[in-house]
TrEMBL record, chains A, B:
Record keywords, A-Z: DNA-binding, Transcription, Transcription regulation
HTH lysR-type domain mapped to chain residues: 6-63
Protein name, UniProt field: LysR family transcriptional regulator
Pfam family, one: LysR_substrate
InterPro entries listed in its UniProt record: HTH-type_LysR_regulators, LysR_HTH_N, LysR_subst-bd, WH-like_DNA-bd_sf, WH_DNA-bd_sf
Molecular-function GO terms, alphabetical: DNA binding; DNA-binding transcription factor activity
Gene Ontology CC terms: cytosol
Family listed: Belongs to the LysR transcriptional regulatory family.
Length: 307, 307
DNA sequence: ATCTATTGATAAGGATTCCTTATGGCACTA
DNA sequence: TAGTGCCATAAGGAATCCTTATCAATAGAT
């Protein structure tokens, strides 16, 4: 005979009848009528081709298990417990309350936007584990492609258009000039690239944003390249020169430095969420993506213009 | 939301689709049509409120799991395995191929009938564990009452009628006289109790069967009481005297001794299966009981008369 | 490019299962 | 001997499952 296939509800009914010693109380607990429980138990007995409960001709009016039923009871309970564990686990998982979320982001967003976003996001999901990596855009994209990360935050260079990657733009990050507060530029509100030619310009990791723009000549003018951001800031504070930075990379609350938008050319990099095309996100990643989307839509451009 | 309740078949479908990488092959394996599998999976996805399989716009035409599905797969497999373990175990149990059977019997049946019966019974149930006890009828009954034993083989004294015990008679065991082959009785085919009065009668554990019969005076005539059966036989072989024994207690294949039925009074003890009333037997015990019944019905009386 | 074969999704109907209300039978109680 | 509490049974409706038939999309072949 083929192995029977138990239904979880059926097993629950059995356990309840056994433990509450009665069909009526079990029916109550199961939110069913008593005949439903009767049929359920009978079906189970047929599957096992054995009787589970003694016939009630005993003096005690309680329904009692047969030896076979006693043998079955603990196993049924274990099976139910196992099922419920899995069900609960999967429910938590699909409500992204648990699981593992791997995230990579470019440093500027990581410093400026993510701290607040992530702390809000994880506020009500204490069981969710998050692995975070920060790196430049290409590295972030690479991690996404290699599935080392579930979701990435980066800008999308043109050479990546071909890849199996979906890009959802979120932030617009405008390039500007950074100088010390006592620099003549500190007082102006916008700058033309040609105004920079007389200045001592320090290149940095973000300088290649100037490539393919009319301001490209600045790159060859430049004498310095400082790729480490902390060193760069220190040099700028020292008055060694000026540099160009995207707004998000400009350190927040820095009192010694000023950020002046570059208006000609206006260079904007679009930063957004990067994920593998044709691959669904885990519920947690999905939740984070929509959370970011929801919590940034309204101030997408304001962030750039304000302050 | 209440926890979802998975169906085992549904989980199987999921695992098959995942492992065979396709709905059609899974449907084949499940002996269902492809739409059935589609619906089954969709139902599961609704329960989990998540998608399990990537949409098939990928270049590879194989259906692939989502990360969530990958996380679910091993758990689903474990749950199915657990279920099947229990189902298999219970199936074996209900076919009495496994489990534990505790049996007590009076020694005569234990020696004369059970060896053959049990060896036949266990021939095709190698996983069944049997615990066997032999003792006199009262002790057997006590073990049954105390549920130290699932089933007993004994005769039912009158003082036990009241108890919660069911008795199914199987064998009729006739009392007879045992003497050495060179004794004058050895040649006769039946005896009257009065013929024993001139003999040296040895009492034994079974002698109380004579109580409440017209042959009761024999008990007070008797000079010896030997309760150990082996010693008793040795004494008889030595020609020390004669005794009364039920036929089943008379050692099989003993060439020195003879058994002569006592015809007046004809004393018969009924031996049968003893079990607790209102308590079902385990499948193994049930099987043994009906096995014994089936394999002894036809020669119930023949055993007593023959040889 | 068109055709074909294969894949999964969808719709509609029938079959099955599940659960309900109503009722029956049995044992214990008063 | 009627009453009460328990489970079993019967019959009908509701929900579920599974089928056939069809669609839509893709990949490979001609």
């Amino acid at each position: 005979m083929a192995l029977p296939e138990f239904k979880i509800a059926q097993l629950r009914h059995f356990v309840w009848v056994a433990e509450l010693k009665g069909f009526h109380t079990a029916a109550e607990k199961a939110c069913r009528t008593q005949p439903a429980i009767s049929l359920s138990i009978r079906d189970l007995e047929n599957k096992l081709s054995t009787v589970l409960f003694e016939k009630r001709n005993a003096k005690t009016s309680n329904t009692e298990l047969t030896p076979f039923g006693q043998y079955f009871l603990p196993k049924a309970k274990e099976l139910i417990a196992h099922h419920d564990n899995v069900a609960q686990d999967m429910a938590l998982m699909s409500e992204h309350k648990t699981g593992h979320l791997r995230l990579a982001s470019v440093p500027s967003i990581a410093c400026r936007m993510l701290p607040e976003l992530l702390s809000k996001f994880i506020a009500d999901v204490p069981e969710l584990h998050i692995s975070f990596y920060d790196d430049n855009s290409e590295a972030v994209l690479r991690k996404v492609e290699k599935q080392q990360v579930d979701i990435g935050i980066a800008s999308l260079p043109h050479e990546h258009e071909h890849a199996d990657i979906t890009f959802t733009p979120i932030w617009e990050d405008q390039l500007g000039v950074v100088c010390r507060e006592d620099h003549p530029f500190a007082e102006v509100t916008e700058l033309h690239w040609k105004e920079l030619r007389k200045q001592r310009l320090i290149r940095n990791g973000t300088s290649r944003l100037l490539e393919d723009t009319e301001a490209e000549p600045l790159l060859s003018d430049s004498q310095f390249l400082i790729s480490n951001m902390l060193s760069l800031i220190a040099m700028l504070e020292e008055g060694l020169g000026i540099t160009t930075l995207p707004w998000f990379a400009f350190p927040k609350n820095n009192s010694k430095l000023r950020f002046i938008p570059l208006t000609t050319p206006k260079i904007v990099r679009h930063i957004g969420i990067v994920q593998l095309r044709n691959k669904s996100l885990s519920p947690a990643a999905e939740a984070l993506a929509s959370f970011i989307l929801k919590n940034t839509n309204q101030d997408k451009t304001k962030d750039v213009e304000s302050e």
